[in-house]
Amino acid sequence: MLAIDVRQLRKQFNVQKNREGLKGAMLDLFKREHTQVTAVKDISFQIPQGEICGYIGENGAGKSTTIKMLTGILVPTSGHIEVNGYVPFRDREKFVQGIGVVFGQRSQLWWDIGVIESFRLLRKVYRVSEDDFKRRLDELVETLTLGELLNRPVRKLSLGQRMRCELAAALLHNPSILFLDEPTIGLDVVVKTEIREFLKRLNREHGTTILLTTHDLQDIEALCSRVIMLDDGRIIYDGGLEELKARWGKGREVQFQFNDPIAIERLAFLTGGLDVRWSKENELTAKVWIPLEINVSDVLSRVVGTTDISDIKIFETSTEEIVREIYRTGSAETAADRIADPVRDEEAPTAQAEAVRS
Amino acid sequence: MISAYLEFIRIRFLMMLAYRVNYYSGIIIYAINIGAYYFMWKAIYGEAETLAGFTVIQMTTYVAVSWMARAFYFNNLDREISNDIRDGSVAVQMTRPYSYLMVKMMQGFGEGLFRLLLFMVPGMVIVTLIFPVTLPTDPVRWIIFFVMIWFSFLINSQLNILTGLFAFFVENNEGLMRMKRVTVDLLSGVVVPIAFFPEWARIVLQWLPFQAITYLPGSVFTGRLNGAETWNALLVQVVWFAVLILPILAMWRAARQRLFVQGG
């Protein structure tokens, strides 16, 4: 069964335009001009139950808007949306009973009262029976080590402590889908790791479907089997993380540290005939990008014999670099894919639009 | 679900209790206000027996009662809602299985209940000891009064909700909130009883919801309205309560369609 089913989803906002200068301000006073901004442009995707899916994109790509439509906060402009068998915005009160939501940047706990008071209030709000609540709370207190936090007021918690409490608060009613909007933002490495471990365990033991947005690609690498990448309101990649790496991580990078300044043209000349790309870091350092078809040793042998080298480092492409590269080019489809894979029809207009843009 | 709403009343009540300094300063502010109005009206009356049909004692009672009623119906729902909208936390509220506006109403009620019990009752005792106030002896009048200030609370909160929801449509509704506050204090009869307004203003005010907040319950309690007039006053309140539901629903619906959560 599908946990999330989204087809041709679109969201447009009317944004007020502020005209410039005093005259503009006076004009604005009487008649406002609006510009229409399309934050999400006819996206489609399906997420089966029990999957952990990462939803990534640059700031303003439409991630948060999508999450807000999926959780029933925003009403879509057009398109079909079904989560857990409900249309979120239409049956909001019934629908939210089955989901948990954590916004990394805003608290859902009540600021002035103790954590446990917030939990008790949520128990009543979600109509969880006393027995279920106790069992669930014990489990969450243990896995998230909340023990000594329960009686403190929320405003006295550190960010990491608060985030653990937020997660517990979102899970007290045992939702089948958990939405996380930047859950690890601003957290230190230790807490990040704890939260990732917790989410993995939650998914394994309760089969909870998790959809998370993040800027931290380590979150994605640690958790997600699938990634949906968004750019300018459109999906530019939807598939496995490994596949993304295999498709884009088609090379390695070698960094050379030379003893004497060296011109990049000379390096290019040395590797003439090989399909590699040189880039200069500074006077004494240069990087070369080597596609998979070419052996690193071939390149090394040509460079090492004729120049004075102090150090060599070899890098595999990280997810972060892949993603950066995709954003730079604006499309996750490599040229070869566009020819080899014309079946993915819903992405065809995307590719075209991107071509127009660039 | 009802138990959840009751929980919101309880928690707000406890939160009010936690901010004790606010509580003590509130009592002092109300006492000063009542005192100031008492002496002002005494000066205005001078030698006169009655003004606009009010005797001095009726006026004193009216001032005391209307301020005490204000303690119960007054809340900052407009500010709370507008803040929720502007900082985007209304989004979190929408992911909960309850009606946001109902929760706000309940929180306002928890606040009102706190002020009624710990503010109004002791305050009224003090005021009756200091100033020449006559309270009605008829228990029915007391019951009607409490029903009426319940409606005062509802109508005032509805106006607050409407004002607060404007934050969805304008970038800054600070001015609107201030205007509403002054308007309610002036036109509801806290500052000046409506009987003192010129004829044309009274006619206009009869068609506005503000008199239902202070003037009508105050008039019933001080015995200026009797018999059928009492029931009439209550009816006016009920009608306004029902009528004001409509713009709130319309606004809420429009807001959800064009909701633009600030901060992405």
Question: Could you explain the architecture of this structure?
Answer:
- The complex is a heterodimer of chains A (about 350) and B (about 260).
- Chain A is an alpha/beta fold.
- Chain A has 2 domains: about 1-245, Rossmann fold, CATH 3.40.50.300; about 250-315, Alpha-Beta Plaits.
- Chain A has helices spanning about 20-30, 65-70, 90-95, 115-125, 130-145, 160-170, 190-205, 215-225, 240-250, 265-270, 295-305, 320-330, 335-340, 350-355, and strands at about 1-15, 35-50, 50-55, 80-85, 100-105, 175-180, 210-215, 225-230, 235-240, 250-260, 275-280, 285-290, 310-315.
- In chain A, strands 5-6-7-3-8-9 form a 6-stranded mixed sheet, sandwiched between helices. Chain A has a 4-stranded antiparallel sheet with strand order 11-12-10-13, with helices on one face. In chain A, strands 2-1-4 form a 3-stranded antiparallel sheet.
- The two termini of chain A are about 40 Å apart.
- Chain A is globular and about 75 Å long.
- In chain B, a hairpin with a 2-residue loop joins strand 1 (about 50) and strand 2.
- In chain B, strands 1-2 form a two-stranded antiparallel ribbon.
- Chain B is globular and about 60 Å long.
- In chain B, about 75% of the residues lie in helices and about 0% in strands.
- Chain B is an all-alpha fold.
- Chain B has helices at about 1-20, 20-45, 55-75, 75-85, 90-95, 100-130, 140-165, 175-185, 200-205, 215-220, 230-260; strands at about 50, 55.
- The interface of A and B includes residues 14, 72, 93, 94 and 108 of A.
Number of helices of chain A: 14
Q: Write down how many β-strands of chain B occur, each being a DSSP E stretch of 2 or more residues.
A: 2
Mean pLDDT of chain B: 87
What is the CATH H-level superfamily of the largest domain in chain A? P-loop containing nucleotide triphosphate hydrolases
Name the helicity range of chain A: 25-40%
Number of structurally distinct domains of chain A: 2
Largest sheet of chain A: 6 strands, mixed
What do we call the CATH topology of the largest domain in chain A? Rossmann fold
Q: What is the CA-CA span between the terminal residues of chain A?
A: 39 Å
Organism (chain A): Cohnella nanjingensis
GO molecular function, one term (chain A): ATP hydrolysis activity
Biased composition (Basic and acidic residues) (chain A): 337-347
Protein name (chain A): ABC transporter ATP-binding protein
